[in-house]
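Hello Y.,

Per our agreement to keep a running log of every chain we model this quarter, I'm adding this entry. I've kept the format consistent with earlier entries: sequence first, then predicted structure.
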Amino acid sequence: MAKITFKLPNGEAKIVDAPNGISLLEVAHKNDIPLEGACEGSLACSTCHIIIEDKARFDELPEPKEDEEDMLDLAFGLTQTSRLGCQIMVNDELDGLVVRLPDATRNMKVK
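Predicted structure for the entry above:
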């Protein structure tokens, strides 16, 4: 289990316990965090776009596959540390990870 901090667009930070073996998208949904995931994690959209706050932590993550990179190209507010929440699986090494949700996705404006 890892503690993950989600920074919401309104500035609020929500720290949650994330069980190993599920995606950050699933963690968000289980904790009422407004991370859309329109394709339900099937890697067919970019609505679960997240931004890893710490570049060093970003560099420790497994490299994104080509399919993820293709979807990230469609993400609103893409950054150098952007990833898709559906593609990052929780493990003990993610303990303390801080991710920021963008202000909007291609499907909706977050308030």
